[in-house]
Predict the 3D structure of the following.
Amino acid sequence: MHRTARECTCYNPPNQAMSSTIYLDYAATTPVDSRVMDAMGPYFSRAFGNPSSVHRYGQQAESALEEARETVARVLRCSANEIVFTSCGTESDNLALRGAAFAARMRSGANQIATSRTEHHAVSKTAEQLEAEHGFTVRWLDSDEDGSPTMQSVSDALNANSALVSVMYANNEIGTINPIGNIAVQCRARGVMLHTDAVQAGAYLDLDVNSLGVDLMSLGGHKFYGPKGIGVLYVREGTTLQPAQTGGSQEAGLRAGTQNVPLIVGFARALQLAQEERAERVAHALALRDHIIGEVLERVPDSRLTGSPTSRLPNHASFVFKDVDGNLLLMLLDAAGFACSSGSACKTGNPEPSDVLTAVGLPREWGLGSLRVTVGKETTAGDVEAFLAALPPLVEKARGLKGE
Ligand SMILES: *Cc1c(COP(=O)(O)O)cnc(C)c1O
């Protein structure tokens, strides 16, 4: 059941000194890189023009906007006119699903969307709404135990009625990297559009849209040291979408509204840095991640890794602990100075395991005790050692407190 933030009884940390807390939640968001701040600065102040204006203020803003678009296009190895700036990863997912579904139905009457229960809610809830309120049908793909859709269920889902397939590049909750290239081959063979939510992938994985073979791809700036509130949807040339937001002709008519020039400049700079520094960032994260995974499974009894052990994001470790209340464990960790996540939304009352953990077939006594630990470029070996020392007694404490 979906609840609003107001009803949520998640622990609110007191205003303690944030500096004493070790941040291990980089999959939720990242701090803005100072080089990104520097790049954005002028566009909040002296270079404040509207890119649609004719005068030189407008021209200055427009050239910053188009330069940012070129930068993003170079990373994705596409052309600049295939880049649409949106307000966030969620909006990109919404535009992709709604835009492609409505356009496909207008074109050919196709009204089936294939996606998975392991998707981010920005995709799965959008698919549910298209089914409940707009007459589309959703084919829910089967997941294997890593949370990837099975190739069989993808091929079974492709037919003359298919409007769109949407499969995420990397899973935010359990870290699994999906074989997008293989899925794309199947979709292409049947002439069906493929969207991928690459919001988690943006920080670490190759974003070449041609080797991935996708038609639509979502990105969000704040997952790779860019600002919040800015996203991109890659739209392959020749792919028609119904615009979700109508008005002016910005973003090739697909996303009306004056562009957020400073955030767009920040997005491009952050993506460029992610690309340039990818090898170092991956190597740094991978060493920490593998140490965390090895030690947690060793030191904590009744613990399991979730997601793929091999095909996973380099900064992402995720676990379930049997007979543990995951939210309670997060509170205990926060009180001890560690900011982690359960990887799923906070629930009240009678909690249920997340859609993702249910889809991978975990029993309830395991699925309720999830923990996601995600590292970033600021994370040190010392941070990880402190976390690994603190975790086992806190898991035992959470087990002891269960049911009281
Ligand atoms: C964070 C995230 C989103 C949402 O992106 P926002 O920019 O926060 O709206 C969507 N999909 C995945 C996989 C994510 O990790």
Confidence is low (pLDDT under 50) at residues 1-16.
